[in-house]
Structures
1.
Amino acid sequence: MLRAGIVGLPNVGKSTLFNAVTRTRKAEAANYPFCTIDPNVGIVTVPDPRLYELQRIAKTNVVIPAVIEFVDIAGLVKGASQGEGLGNTFLTHIREVDAIIQVVRCFEDEDVHHVSGTVDPVRDIEVINTELMLADLESVRKRRERLARDIKKGEKGAAVEESVLAKVEVTLDAGKPALLTALTPDEQASAASAFLLTSKPTIFACNVKESDLATADANPYVRQVRTYVQTHLACDAVVISAQIESELVDLEPDEAQAFLKDLGVEESGVGALIRATFHLLGLRTYFTAGEKEVRAWTIHAGDTAPKAAGAIHTDFERGFIKAETVAYADLIRCGSVAAAREQGLYRMEGKDYVVADGDVMLFKFNV
């Protein structure tokens, strides 16, 4: 299961957001730095209304959504790459996740201490990214020194990896994350062995006050973050109110919806954040639907039908024969598999078929 790490400066709302995303009270949330030391871990279901449309067609009571793992990581401070605060521990925990959600404080509140004394989200982003880049720079330089010795010994592949890391070092020296280095797919695979922090896909969560959620687009801090991350980091930003989300945890779905409506918003920011993280990880969903259950299966973008079948069981991939497939939108429009088949929308696909997000599939296999 792929993991997304929630990071940020101390007291920006990381633990509160983690509790909301995982619908638990596992993470301590307090008004002082480093109230999170050991990372909290939670399994999160991916909100997908398509499941319930398929449930209606399949006439089943069982719905199983896709899941990802979220990790609440201790707050980082300036100097973390040199061991300040919980720096070394923090960096180790980041290396263990597949993607990063960086929480940025976008609200003023005299009662909530800011580690830097003032609210400045762009500065906060730069503090964290600088520490990550400095840690990466040190890792790359040490790795290149070792590779230079391996090249002299004639080690196979050392020269290729060294040339790739040389490109990455230029990017890091320019104050840019490793992810922005122009690399071919083969070079990206080579660079992956360095486990660089800034090579991980990242999304930014703008944490706003309850009263600002409905008008977040006008929030100057949110606008600053969106402009900065798009132009400097080629990343996206979503808006959440960690405090609101924490309150929704204790409400029934109908009560939560009414609460959000009173605030002038239609959907919890957490739902959008979870979906954005799912796609940030390069994940896609296909469905199986029958009387027994409707289920979302997780695959990577670009996976072929046999690979998708392997998500259910390795025997399905090994003995793959064909896949019966219909697009979600076509099935919903037709109202049944039989109607989709009559209209020629129910297809037979072979081993080379690249599964599309939302495909509803039935696999034929032989082992």
Note: The mean pLDDT is 87.
2.
Amino acid sequence: MNLVSLALDDLGGAELFPLDALMTLRQKWDEARGPLLDALKAFASGADRTPENAGRVFFGLHLMAEKRETEAWAPLLAVAGEGEVLYDMIGDASTETLPAILLSLYSGDLDGLKKLIESPRADEWGRVAALECLSALAARGEISRDDAQAFLAHCFETLQPRESHAVWYGWQGCVALLGLSELEPLAARAFRQGLVDNSILGFEDFQADLRASRASANPVELFDERGIHPIDDALDALAVFDEEDEEPSPPAENPLKNVGRNDPCPCGSGKKYKKCCLAAE
């Protein structure tokens, strides 16, 4: 068995963070690219959704993002469109690094990105990540800012569900980060109608973000500060999952998998989950 095959096995079954395997695959990318894409496609098609393959895909996606492997775009969107299956594949990356992965793998398929955002069947945090990717593309000048504004305005009328949901959290955040003052009245309505959970985020928070974007000389920096930027180093991006040499979370079963980072913490503290028990893990 060659080094690449051994490294791929390590991604699927490592008890500790597989740093050596990741380094090997990065160094031998010409050999590693095909098997990692095959692992992703096998998960997307349903041919192999074992925890072992999920581990390969989780780490492989970060490497493919670093390498700008746009062939990974379509199967990743297909999985995100299936709902909670996305979490089975990449675990906590769905709320941590997925926006950066999408931005890195973007193939020019803007229609596919919009379809994911608008699909009520899709994973909720996958929809948020897609919104953040679309907005970052507009901030970076890779798609028309006017078109992004028109789409976000359209989303206010069409997005489902018409109740408090993570997708509305993502929607208001993108309006604010892009500094779209023209859409502030729609954002105000979203907060008034309870589409954005006011116990998690207030309209004044939206306005503060909007002002910061309008005052910024370089709006891209605001996205960068929130981790919404292309992945140039997969190991740096994966560092958030390498705390105290514990096993990365994606293949593991997480009893709090339906709790979003910005949801109220289940412990009852009144704080956001990311500021309470998630931060303490």
Note: The longest helix spans residues 29-45.
3.
Amino acid sequence: MILINLLPHREAARKRRRDVFNVTLGASALLGGLVAAAVFLWYQGALSAQQDTNSLLERESKKLDGQIKDIAGLEEEIAALRARQKAVEDLQSDRNLPVHLLTEIVNQLPDGIYVSKVAQADQVVTINGVAQSNERVSELLRNLANNTPWFAKPELVEIVSGTVALSQRDQRRVSNFTMKVHLVRSSEAQKSMAASAASGASAASAAASTAKK
């Protein structure tokens, strides 16, 4: 028996292809939506994690700022304590400074100079006196600069020529002077003396070695 298909087979084939295309398109759209949703969720998770990390960093940064302020405050307190300690040590070591001051002035005075006044303000000593000549004043300046570790930076403030009457007939010309000198603290003077002693010992040792050769 021969069967004859009287239906429009081309239309049916076209419909099948269209149905397959629609199904494929729908599946592609669904797959694309799922991929987009997955990507969106992944980005949202990464963004949330980054925000949490940023929040943690901000909290830790604030903690560190607080610790830095505490450390700065401790350093200031330590510096203040050290300054107080140094001040106390300077006061203790400087108790004998007036004795060194008067002793060194007497030791360094050349002949022909009379000191009329000595005044101290902090570490600056002002010396007023009378000298037989300007050369005597220059000699005193050199002595204070080079011969003692207890004085530094001597400076001649003023020198005025005048006369002094030894008797009614005997009058001599003199130089009235004012000079300033820095009084060295005991700790610094002791360091200077120790360095000078070490230098002298080294020089003596070198001389002895040279003599043996």
Note: Strands lie at 113-121, 124-131, 151-165, 171-183.
4.
Amino acid sequence: MNPMPELSPMLKQLRLSGILDSLEVRNRQAMEDKLSYTEFLALLLQDESARRTNKKLTQRLRKAGFQPNKTLEAFDFAFNLAIDKKLIMDLATCQFMDEKVPVLIAGPCGTGKSHIAQAIGHCAVRLEKDVVFTTQAKILGQLHAAKATNAYDRKLTALIRTDLLIIDDFGLKPLQSPQDEDLHAAIAERYERRSTIVTSNLDFDEWGEAFPNKILGAATLDRLRHGAYRVVLDGNSYRKPRPMSKSPKSTLKTRQKNVKN
């Protein structure tokens, strides 16, 4: 007698329908290996546990909003030997999240700030942490839009409660009022409660210049700097243009000739 038709609705009712994916294979294995009932049950539950873990990981990665392939495994540490690999690998353990302190990453364009920030975020997701990766422009734009629909408090609360908030490209554009107030609200509420990663093209001593209200800027940066790990990236840019043709003029003439013909 095939028990599958009877098991299917019961497993769905118990929210264990994932077991159906491996039930037939595990049943055959149990008969071939003469497994006990408890061994057979343990295999099914292990499959269901792994399925749920993978599903949660996929959901967290989707929610985080990472760009493709921005992981530690994909980062080329050999390109810029001046990068403090040990510090970055230590940060990848996410111990800083237990300490509830920020991570500040500064350096010129193309030196890997965004990649490293997202790579650390990936590590946090693997530890079953909720992560949001965004840019200064995007987060402030979302908070501004939320005010128009009376959803500001809800949006701000969601940002505050996120285990790890990553804000990319801080200071790329100078803040305007009330953007500086919105940013301060998010940073102040996360202070000593949740960890935040911030990347910027500006040197650390230039971050205050991004704020129109210097007093508010000082209050925001004071909270960001307190106990923060600092990562300074320097060296060549990973973003390289395509090499130019050795004889662009002759190539252009050839193209023009082909067009006339």
Note: Residues 70 and 118 are 6 Å apart (CA to CA).
